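Table S5 (text form). Sequence records supplied for joint modeling of the two-component complex.
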Amino acid sequence: MTLWLIPALPYLGALILILAGSKLSKQMAGIIGCGSMGLSALWTGVTGIAFLSGGREPVRLQLWEWFDVAGWNPGVTLYFDSLSLVFTFVITFVGFLIHVYSTGYMARDEGFNRFFAYLNLFVGSMLMLVLADNLLLLYLGWEGVGLCSYLLIGFWYQDPANGAAARKAFIVTRIGDTAFAIGLFMLFQTLGTLNIGAILAEAGSALSGDGAASWPGGPAGATAIALLLVGGAVGKSAQIPLQTWLPDAMAGPTPVSALIHAATMVTAGVYLIARMHGIFELSPVSMQVVSLIGTITLLVAGCSALCQSDLKRVLAYSTISQIGYMFLALGLGAWSAAIFHFFTHAFFKALLFLGAGAIIESLHHEQNIFRMGGLRKELPVVFITFLIGSASLAALPLVTAGFFSKDQILWMAFAGEHGSLGLWIAASVGAFLTALYTFRMVFVTFWGETKTPVTHRPGKAMTIPLIILALFSLLAGFIEVPHNLGHITLFSSFLASVLPSPELITDSLLMEWMSQAAAALLTLGGIGLAYEYYVRNPQSLAGMKRNTGALQRFFHSGFGFDRLYDSLLIQPYTWLARVNRRDITDSLYTGLARFSIWLHRQSAQTQTGILRHYLLGAAIGALIILTISIFI
Amino acid sequence: MTSLIIVSVLAVAVLYLGLFKYKTALLPVSVTGLLAAAAMAAMDWDLEKMYFSEMMLFDNYAVAFSILLILTTLLIFGLSRNYFEKISNNVAEYYALMLFALAGGVVMVSFHNLAMLFIGIEILSISLYVLAGIRRKDPASNEASLKYFLMGAFATGFLLFGTALIYGATGSFNLAAIASSGAFESALFRAGVLLMMVGLSFKVSVAPFHTWTPDVYEGSPGLIAMFMATVVKTAGFAAFLRLFLMAFAEASAFWAITVAILCILTLFAGNITAVFQDRFKRLLAWSSVSHAGYLLLAILAVGFSASSAVLVYTIAYSLASVAAFGIMILVSRARGNDHLDSFNGLARTNPFLAFTLTLAVCSLAGIPLTAGFFGKFYVFKVALAQGYTWLVVLAVINAMIGIYYYFKVIIAMYMKENANAVAIQLNPGFRLVLSIVVFLIFLFGIFPGLIANIL
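The corresponding structure-token record, covering 1087 residues in total, follows.
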């Protein structure tokens, strides 16, 4: 079995680029970076076809034993099933396209080789994450992508702001990682293993027995573990309350935003929850928490996206919001719906980011959408593909992939066993917001008059990935179509061997039609409203700005989370650090040093060099030894 | 046994070679002889043979330590080319005396009778008294020799008195007979044990009987100091442990507290005094005192795990000491003295030497990935298994203090500049020995199982 080649190839590429990066030409580095990714994608394809045409049996491949301590011997073991395949496919395939795009985008950058080394390292770690057989290895990949994300956000490190953004991303996700680690400790304490299969088997037998009561750690233990895992997922996937790092992470090069902060890394949290679904099924509370986090996040981020003027920040908030949908679906137990949305989202969000990158590069690094405009005719390919991506993000009915995946989540929010009218309304409002902010961005950027001249047009290396991604953004949805529209369930039945399918409390066809109609109307309404305000009647905006200025500023700041955390956590912490400048814990060591100096002075006096003293000392010592023994 | 004979005959043969002025043959003959001795010792593995009406016992313990002593001597000989020629005309004496000392060391690790212990110690010590003073025209060397001799004689008094008392209490010199005599409660026996402990403590420089160590190390030629720090210390501890393991183990409840007190004293005396030494040789001397303290921890845990811990520790310590003393010799020869400032800028002029010395002091300090880490690890482990947690805590504090002074030389080499420093020339012997040492420190630091499971 040559499954190991999939993560090994990007790692090999990274290794070559790190070791020989300074000696390689840019062309060579590009070939190594893209080539290793391309081969990895190809190999994923081969492995995937073998998997599909075979018995679809999960494959477990132990490469070697990692370590063996006290009866615990986690292996460097890969596990390949349909869920891993979906993620592996997206990571390698979208990753490859982004690599190709980057050769164009970064062509004039001095750090070209370093960029590809990081990018390859990132993809390798991400593959390790989704292919890991045990949670320890998964955690290794998890930390690996965290590290690469830090390196790539701060890629242009000469600007201190980028370094600050990188640190922010690292520290905020680290909070989630810590929760995740504690969750792992608890899991290990409860079960004595971190093997995913063993954990899920244990959870499954508990579920088919008396539910959480027969779980070794009791219901409270299961809930605690599930919530700690959610903590990790929330950090990595930028959900409330740890979402603040993602908008700032746009400081990195745009392909990085596309790869890491849209298509793959931020969905690691989704993967984690879906992979560990057995634990969550034991704890209804944690499921509710997940759906609640998702709902709040998708609304908050949707509102924030409405008021951004930086093209990449609009997309960043839309990512947070779309992952909110995935979390909502996970919380509803609609596992495959969440993964399906991840699947389509990866294509259209990568497309949007790459399109945004092409625009930004053409306009000499201008990111403010209000200084763009009229790009429809200047950049036709970018315009059409960006429009397709936007339509898919806004879930334009019937023709886009985003519609089918989002519709499934909406329907589950209404009709799923954990669904409720409230969740459905919130998700629908979110859909409306999505359409509104997406097309606000499109209209402001591509319609109207030209404000910044186009200095440079994207080459083939950049446009071809856009076109391919655009095709996927349109077509990827048709592998899963609701039963009133054609009933195709390729995707969910593919995942059914890994993820249980949810029960519906109502299967009324009428309700489903109505839900779809409502969602479609809301989407079209959002687009229409954006058209009204930003194309037909822009003057009315000024009045609205006057009336709702404070609210807009609030939305613009992302609901003030940054300021809240600053005054709640950062200020007290820096105060404490200032107060404790002469570190209290250090006093142990300085005390030890002082004690040593004092004792040394005493003992130095014994070094007289005079033999009489030495002999006297020895004789006294011997006498003391003999005296001590009398008292024993 | 064959190896002991080879070493002794070799010493005599080397003397004759000196007499007939075959100076160039000295080193090859010695090296070949030592290799043969090591091979012969290895043949005795698992044989457990007694010799001379139970005076000597070549068990695995004796074999392992004999081989260690022989191979360490071999490493030292590897460094000795062109060394003795510069300080003396009678080069053969050096080789012969060191080989005689080695023979004494082999007796010390294989005795099964108190008389043999005494004979071994004396063969070793008397050779060393001469070696310490071999630079006849150097007052420091003479002083070192005389001090060592007087202190040694004083210690021998204790040792002999203790031996006599034990004979009085048990009626035997034989270790097995002593162990089975059942006289552990008698005051005679107890006093004897303590007096022997004092005598042996002198030899392995355990506080408060360590005071001679820095003066003697400082006055002796560098290579002889290296020999004292490695071969003599290893032999001394192996003898110490062998005696207490085979003869006095049953009475451990009685002497353990004394050993614990000596251990604390030694740790603090060695480490604290080393902190502000500014001469590297003296620093190493004090550090050798502190290592005696760590080794005493293992004596507390009588049993086979203790032998294993002492073996691992002495291997690691000997390797690191060979490198540290060797580089000290090179630096003090090239730059006039062994002051820590003389090491400034070594990383730039001689990266290999700087790296080797860094590795050696890291091993002495017990930093992971070096053999020294596992030396400390096993010693602490056996002490913990015996319940001496408080003692191990103190030992760890001392290890922390140790890092301070060990790293002074690293700082000097890597962070301080010396504008007039020129590269030090290495002869092939040095290069080979230092490379072997580097390799072994890493090897045993990464695969400690290679040496930890021998005994």
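Note: Residues 2-452 of chain B form one domain.
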